[in-house]
Amino acid sequence: MPHTPENCKEVFAMLSQYLDLELPSDDCQAIEEHLAGCAPCMEFLESLKKTVKLCHECQPSTVPAPLTPEARRELEGAWKKMLERRGG
Ligand SMILES: [Zn+2]
User: Fold this and answer.
1) What is the Cα–Cα distance from 51 to 46, expressed in whole angstroms?
2) What distance in angstroms lies between residue 56's CA and the mean position of ligand 1's atoms?
3) 16 and 72 Cβ atoms separated by less than 8 Å
4) pLDDT top residue among 66 and 50
5) C-alpha of residue 38 to centroid of ligand 1, in Å
6) Where are the domains of the chain?
7) How far is the CA of 61 from the centre of ligand 1 (A)?
């Protein structure tokens, strides 16, 4: 996967599923390959992991839930800013 802003957006679209381990392994591999060559996406994934972990820690008795729409919007905003910063 070449590292273009378009691909970064595709990766972002799959990331929450990726974190929930819901992606087929082919897609997981594509994401991991992209992340390996794309520092901004890797950084973003690290912050996403922290966010998800925090959510789970807040609700230890519940089954891990997908990101809330609010959290997703926040992450999307952060993602767009990140893409703007790198000039994409
Ligand atoms: Zn990327």
Assistant:
1) 9
2) 26
3) yes
4) 50
5) 5
6) 5-85
7) 34
